[in-house]
Write a structure and sequence with these properties.
CATH architecture of the largest domain: 2-Layer Sandwich
Protein name: Threonine--tRNA ligase
Keywords: Aminoacyl-tRNA synthetase, ATP-binding, Cytoplasm, Ligase, Metal-binding, Nucleotide-binding, Protein biosynthesis, RNA-binding, tRNA-binding, Zinc
CATH class of the largest domain: Alpha Beta
Helix content: 25-40%
Catalytic activity: tRNA(Thr) + L-threonine + ATP = L-threonyl-tRNA(Thr) + AMP + diphosphate + H(+)
CATH topology of the largest domain: BirA Bifunctional Protein, domain 2
Organism: Prevotella pectinovora
Strand content: 25-35%
Domain TGS: 1-61
Radius of gyration: 29 Å
Number of domains: 4
Structural class: alpha+beta
Number of helices: 20
Length: 650
Amino acid sequence: MIKITFPDGTVREYEQGVTGLQIAESISPALARNVLACGVNGETVELNRPINEDAKVTLYKWEDEEGKHAFWHTSAHLLAEALQELYPGIQFGFGPAVDNGFFYDVMPKDGVVIKEGDFDKIEKKMKELAAKDELLVRKEVSKADALKEFKADGQEYKYEHIDQDLEDGTITTYTQGHFTDLCKGPHLVSTGAIKAIKITSVAGAFWRGDAKREQMTRIYGISFPKKKMLDEYLVMLEEAKKRDHRKIGKEMELFMFSERVGKGLPIWLPKGTQLRLRLQELLRTLLKPYNYQEVITPGIGGKSLYVTSGHYAHYGKDAFQPIHTPEEDEEYMLKPMNCPHHCEVYARKPRSYKDLPLRIAEFGTVFRYEKSGELHGLTRVRTFTQDDAHIFVRPDQVKKEFENVIDVILKVFDIFGFKDYEAQISLRDPKDTEKYIGDDQNWEDSQNAIREACREKGLLCREEEGEAAFYGPKLDFMVKDAIGRRWQLGTIQVDYNLPERFKLEYTAEDNSKKTPVMIHRAPFGSLERFTAVLIEHTAGHFPLWLTPDQVAILPISEKYNEYANNLAKYLDGKGVRAKVDDRNEKIGRKIRDNEMKRIPYMLVVGEKEQAEGTVAVRKQGGGDQGVMSKEDFAKKINDEVAEMLKGLTL
């Protein structure tokens, strides 16, 4: 008999070799029908994998990320199986599960092009194969046998992957029907659970992400255990298109991109810049009680700075290449992170235990080389500005400072209406510690400090191994927007390692030299990503205090342009942001255009308003609000803003 421990601490005994499915069946038939995968000592495996020793076991359903991952990973194999039947001789690259569904990179034979018009037949074939309820059979194979098998099948990309990347003794395949794939898993037990399928898009993708290699066809899809779920998803997808921050950002004239400036390099237009500066001022207001010291550091640094920090070794592939100056052996790098610069700020003079906590903040612009195929509006760019800070503390101050940052992040979420969020503790991968810097004790201390702070704040958290930064664990906040999509925004990290690498010290009470602990934090994450998420969450209808233009003044003809401009000056003097739309257009067109720009209030002015010093008020989405004096309108706007901003102190 072996002991199985469940997440709630309950322990049951089962015969050696029991499977996750059998465990589910022993609990309830309903659970057995709905369970998709099984966690065994932190590793997700198939439900039919035997468990031969005492283990901690979690049963994953659709509601769990691990369950969805197994479901969509199996769906990727189902897509490949369908393509193999529809396009004989097709070659396969990689086919993983992603956040919303799955994709497979393929190379059809003889220049065949797979396009949107082929989606229906691919979906039909996938459903036909799923209905056969084919078992997925896992097999461990030697490297020699794997090379032989995939070479015989003419799978050149799989052969290359095995030959160059995989070690003997680590290779497994999964077979369903007549299709065999090179894969680590995990998967569903069989394909029968896949009831609803949608191929969503097709794109080009270079093999291994290398622009020098051949371009493959990437086919995206999504699947569900019930048709109703797919229907709901398609409705959400249509709503997401309407809320696309790239479309709304263009309509509201917030930001732009220029091919001549470069891919992934956003340009903030005047209205977007206003919005961005208000976000910065909001955060400065929230941080006022904590005595942060704001700095500005250069956008580049000597290569040796990032070698010392470890960023050069661990971010080398994601960074722009070193900049060589005319001086021999002098190299600089575009700044990929702010923390090394802030370590230098700390090190500029001796520090005492009385100086700590030392909180150094910066709206710091950094640069990362994202592959061109992964760029997406403001959410994936090559330069972005972090609302960054690094807090240098004594070990006994870690928990309190960590809790203070949690308070700031939750206040930000409250202000912007992010009510549905989840906290994730991102831990080091215990099976691959080579990816990280620092000793085991530092990691244990920092991971436990995060757990303890979360318990103190009553914050429900999930833990994810392998998601930590290379220098320390972190607490990430995943928020759901108005249509249910998950975004990673605020983050807090505990770091014992960078202070050691930079030989940072403070003089303790007993006059000994100690190394401080460093807390990294960014409540927004980055101004670019936060703005994109906020646009899509609100569909561009920003809070009145934040929106670039609060009021559009619409004269019904050019005769009233002077009154409109004087009105704009009056409102500006009262702290109300107003613009005049004096185009030679009909008033209906002006109203429609300014509705499109999501301006909260419109003031229609004509002969009567000019004569009486009044305005006819329209509200975005609310229609005609009646006539009022300019004084009363200015007071109304300022009262609304004051009510919104009330309670911005923590």
